[in-house]
Every structure is written in C-alpha cells, then in structure tokens.
Amino acid sequence: MAKISKNTRNEIQETVYSFFTEECEVDAASLNEKTNILRDLGGDSLMFLELIEIFKKKYSLNIELKTIGKYVVKHPVETIGQLVDMTMLIIEHENNIVNLD
C-alpha cells in the first residue's frame, strides 16, 4: 500500500485531468468533478485500464485488475470525481478494496 499524503488527491486529479485532456482532446478548463466520463468525454473502459496502469506504476501498487473490477461492479464510476475517489481507495487499500463497504 502506498502512503497517502495531503497532496495525493491533487496529484491524482492532475493526472486524471491531463489524461482526459490528451485522450479526449478537450480543454482542461472544461473538466470538473462532475464531468461524466462516458457521456461528456466519450471515454471507455480501455481508458480506465490505462489510467489504472499509470497509477500502478506511479505508486508501485500491487493490485489485480479483477479486484478493481469486483469493486467497480458494486461501486460504479461515472464521473471524474468518483474516479479520483476510487483511485485514492486503491492506493490506500490495494487488494483490500473489495473488503470496503
């Protein structure tokens, strides 16, 4: 598990915004916590997997994609804010994320 600092959420948010700005060719100023990844950005599950891989490398995480999948089935992610929140949980709890409810 990676250590969470005061700046972790900001780092995650910056990475997510930068990712979607580049991948979806949108202006970063148009993004906010309530931006719907599928409807507003035309995002897809492959983008989600790419982001997870970025965070796995950045924070040296040891988490299986199937574990994240189990969590997302119970806690769907639709907005950028939800994605940032879930990423925080992944960093903090890794494979134990499925035990959170």
Keywords summarizing the entry:
101 residues; mainly alpha; Non-ribosomal Peptide Synthetase Peptidyl Carrier Protein, Chain A; 4 helices; 0% strand
Describe this structure in words.
It is a single chain. This protein is mostly helical. It has a single domain (8-99), classed as ACP-like (Non-ribosomal Peptide Synthetase Peptidyl Carrier Protein, Chain A), CATH 1.10.1200.10. Helices cover 53% and strands 0% of the residues. The chain contains 4 helices and no strands. The protein has helices at 8-23, 45-58, 65-74, 80-93. Helix 1 crosses helix 4. The two termini are 19 Å apart.
Secondary-structure map:
Blueprint: H1 8-23, H2 45-58, H3 65-74, H4 80-93
CATH architecture: Orthogonal Bundle
> What oligomerization state is this entry in?
single chain
Cα-atom radius of gyration:
13 Å
Mean residue pLDDT: 92
Report the total helices. 4
As a percent range, the share of helical residues equals: 40-55%
Tell me the structural class: mainly alpha
Largest sheet: none
Give the number of DSSP strands. Answer: 0
Beta fraction: under 5%
Which superfamily, in CATH terms, is the homologous superfamily?
ACP-like
